Amino acid sequence: MKKITPIFLIFLLSIISCSEDNDDNVSQITTTFNFSHNWDGTPVTNSDFNAIKFTNANGEQLSIERLRYLVSKITFTTNNAEKLVLNGYNLVDVTNNQNLSFSSSTLIPIGSYSDVTFTFGFNNEDNSGNYEDLNSTSWFVPAMLGGGYHYMQFDGKFLNTSDTEQGFNYHAIRAADNPGDNPTFPQDTFFNVSLGEVIISNNATFNIEMNIAEWFKNPNTWDLNVLNQMLMPNSDAQIMMFENGQNVFSLKSIDQ
To answer: What is the annotated signal peptide range for this record (predicted)?
Structure first.
């Protein structure tokens, strides 16, 4: 019987080691989240902004001039109820066509997940943090309304009952009462979006859609002639936004 020479043995161990490394790399994958936008099925990009071309559920014609919103705490829930939370948050800026895609540095194992979720805005704990990048983009909320950060800034114009263009500022924040030194918070208005059960077999790209029209129609038909500005200190309006936001996002597809 021939003996295995030391050089051949080292070569053999090297091959085995490389094979094991490749297996490890395959078992941990990266995820990307792409955000696209539509108005009841018609695609919307920033090239559609600044023109009266949309009609909401209340029959008001309107334009979009600015749309940006925050997503955070993307979470994969395993079949054993373990939660894998991805690092980071993303300020989706449709107006400037920036951050429409977000890739996390956190790797996750391949396999089956009972749910994938993300938070619209920040939850209360994260909202109490200090984020220099968000501070520099005028994303903060005044201290008299509880501080923290916006969830969404959605601005435009609409044709009012006098058929005159009028501005609206549909800004979502944490609902606050009693503006001043000691505001109170009637209920949470961030919300979690469920993308459902998924099976991950390779690097995955989640294609997520926002139906902008939903902000105005379900379950609350939004009347822009009544609710158009000064909505941040209006906790009732913030709760209506929270309710309408439940059906805004959907998972279009997953590319693997």
So the answer is: 1-19
